[in-house]
Structures are given as structure tokens and as C-alpha cells.
Amino acid sequence: MLVVLAICAYLFGAIPTGLILTRRLGKEDIRKAGSGNIGATNVYRVAGRKLGIITLIGDCLKGVVPVVIAQQAFDLTGTALALVALAAFVGHCYPVYLGFKGGKGVATALGIFLVFSPLAVLTALVVFVLFLWRWRYISLASIAAAAAIAPAIHLTTGSWPIFTVTLVIAAIVIWRHKDNIKRLRSGTENRFNF
Hints:
Layout (H helix, E strand, L loop, with lengths): L1 H12 L3 H8 L15 H8 L1 H25 L4 H16 L12 H11 L1 H18 L2 H20 L2 H16 L2 H9 L8
Helix pairs in contact: 1-4, 1-5, 2-4, 3-4, 4-5, 4-6, 5-9, 6-7, 6-9, 7-8, 8-9
């Protein structure tokens, strides 16, 4: 059963929300505009605030829905629940529908962590907002929030499987920002315009 749930979580997480939305509304292929990323930040910049916010919500739900179903309908806990969460996250980052080229995982991770610990998310959100307000880089704020989430999850849940998968997810989020890190270091990263 766990294998089936993990596969379903992966396939659900792999749904390219931003690409579907922009195509449905006659916008250009999001993969060929802006940063080329299918996530909410690029949709926001290329297709506008409304679509960016809807993409953010959609990508977030890709983390929430599989984890809630696994937790509530199948009563999974610990390692099994962590694996379902990881499958949904990997689906977003490496979607089979797009040749395994997906987003950076921030919004989907947000959805997962909202289920695990809203308090931990609040902590990471404060870090995100402070970094964004101070430096106006979405990428830097996302990296800082990813670094903050694991200890916050550990303190609020006390679950080693959940903490371990959080470390893995946070590491992947940071690694997938490697190009942003290069641009931050060279001073060429785009600032977020409020």
C-alpha cells in the first residue's frame, strides 16, 4: 500500500500547475520565459500577480493533499508518512510529465510542512519575510527559510523520520537554487519588486 501511495503522491506532485495555468490562459510557455522555471515566482514575473498567486496555491496543495490523505485516510505516521511527503516533493521537482524538469520545490515543501507543523512553517515564514524585506531576493529568502525549517520541525514535532525527510527536502531546495546562488554571488540576481 505504501508503494502505491508514494507513486500516487509523486504523480500528483508532478502536475505542472504553472505551465497548465499559463497555457490555458493563452500565455507563453513559461519554460521559455523569464528564468524558465515552472514555479510561482517565474509565473508571477512573466504572467502576472494573479496567476503567480494561483500557481503558488496549486503547488502548495500538491504537498498538502497527498500528506493529508496518507495521514487521515490511511493513518500513516512516522517513516511511511515522511516517504509519501518526499514522493510528492520529488514529483514537483522532477515531474515525469515534463522530462523530469520541474520547479525548485519551495511551495510544495510549504504544503508538506503545513501539515507536519504549522508552527514550524510560521517560524520559516518569519525568516523568509525578513530576508525578503531586507534584501528583496526571493531566492535568498527561500534558501534561508529552507535552512530554518528543519530545526523548527524537529523542535515542534519531535519525530525523527519527519525531521530526516525535512533535512532531505531542505537540502534539495537549496541545491536547486544553485544557479540563483551563483547570481547572488555575482550580483546579477533579480530583485523582487513589491
